Amino acid sequence: MSLKQQKIDVTDRVVGKLKNGEIELFLENERIGKMTIPTGCQIELDHHFEGNQEKIYQHVTAPTDPEPRYTDCDEGGWC
């Protein structure tokens, strides 16, 4: 049996994370490269998101005084 080098398209599985003026590229949990963001570049975000000093924030509505019976629930709704 012999092995042959092949090229596999993984583009739709690559994820980017903002860090220090760059976008780090990951395939699953492995860092595979980076992209430098040019100075003065603007990032367009959807309605409920805001960028500020290399951070991205989501605007959400949350109760000011949550009821104690709902504070220790898991994601499935079990308390």
Characterise the protein shown here.
- The chain has a three-stranded antiparallel sheet, with no helix packed on it.
- It has one domain.
- The protein has about 80 residues and is mainly beta.
- This is YusG family protein.
- It comes from Cytobacillus spartinae.
Helix content: under 10%
Evaluate the radius of gyration.
20 Å
Strand content: 25-35%
Structural category: mainly beta
For the report, how would you describe the main beta sheet?
3 strands, antiparallel
User: With helices defined by DSSP (H or I, 4 residues minimum), what is the helix count?
Assistant: 0
Mean pLDDT: 86
Shape: flat
InterPro entries: Uncharacterised_YusG
Protein name: YusG family protein
SSE arrangement:
Blueprint (H helix, E strand, L loop, with lengths): L13 E6 L2 E6 L2 E7 L12 E4 L2 E4 L21
Antiparallel strand pairs: 1-2, 2-3, 4-5
Task: Describe this protein with a few key phrases.
single chain, 79 residues, mainly beta, 5 strands, YusG family protein, Uncharacterised_YusG
Q: Would you kindly provide a brief summary of this structure?
A:
By secondary structure, the protein is mainly beta. The protein has strands spanning 14-19, 22-27, 30-36, 49-52, 55-58. It holds the Pfam family DUF2553.
